Amino acid sequence: MRGIWLKRAAGLPILGAAVAGGVWFAWPPPVPVDIATAKLGPMEVTVDDEAKTRVRHIYTVSAPVVGKVLRTPRHVGDPVTADETIVAIMQPTAPSFIDVRSRGELESAVAAAEAAVKLAGAEIRRSEAALEFSLGELRRAQALARTDTIAAKALDKAKLDVQTNEAALASAKAQLDVRRSERAAIAARLIDPSSPGSSPGPTCCIQIRAPVTGRVLRIIQESEASVPAGAPLIEIGDPVDLEIAAELLSTEAVLIPAGASVRIDGWGGPALRGRVARVDPAGFTKVSALGIEEQRVRTVIDFVDPSDAWARLGHEYRVLVHVTIWSADNALSVPVSALFRKEESWAVFAVVEGRARTTFVQVGRRNNRMAEILAGLSAGENVVLHPSDRIREGVRVARREEQ
What we know:
single chain; 403 residues; alpha+beta; conserved putative lor/sdh protein from methanococcus maripaludis s2 fold; Elongation Factor Tu (Ef-tu), domain 3; CATH 2.40.50.100; 4 domains; four-stranded antiparallel sheet; 4 helices; 21 strands; rod-shaped
């Protein structure tokens, strides 16, 4: 009997070890989580969006008259000097083609005008003959008047006839000039692109010069073409005089104070500093990529850094702007990913002695990454990031790197 008890007593440690092993294997391990620490430090809230650089003052050169603009001698990026550099050359437009019926009508009109010229020439010859006869009569009347052979009235009648015939001759000559001009006008209507001399000469053209000193930003009409008066031809500006135009949502634009600081990046170089120069007082509707109508407000931003820092930027380059609407030097903050809603309030899972504890917090300002904590947490406390459905009150957790 005693031997049996001895055997049982010797088996108790083995049984205890087996039970302890089973309990250890059955006990749930801590949930691996990402952990962040609430810290005091600088924090800012920004309005972030894409924007474009643009030359502050762009001058559009337009066609001053209707005509044919020749292929531009300039290229994008070429330097130009005010009132010196030729940026466009214009010629008169070539006459249009004439259909068969119109040509027949014009040729008949030219023949009629030629006949009118001949008629005016005949009228001149008649007037000259009448004038010559009246001059002879006047000379005879003057000779008779010296001997008192004729009355004074007859002498006056001879003088009147001379003056009348002189006026008739002048009128006939003027009429001839009118008929010749009419003939030339009708004949000019017969000119078409195939007629000799229809092409303009080298001295007939208009040379359009640059209105300001700068560089060619855009060539609107590059090839030769007929253009109406006022048609835009080329854009000129100074690439060193750059600003940034951002189209922000109106709900965000109202939060931006005048002179707000801006961080500029995403352009291929180091981050730059800027300052809000103007928020337009009028908005406009813009359709987003998802087809949603949005009210946008254009915001103009000036560079603060010297031009050497952004010399590689040009007209209409893409940048990312971060406009500061609030900042603090010593704010308590945690990552936004640690927050979740519970009972109409914000809460986090604080890590206390290796376990997750639900902690309600009062949230202040937020940006894309961090949230300001006004109450509920202290600096140095750890919180769980991206809490999943496995995280509950009192669940054991461990930092993911330790697993």
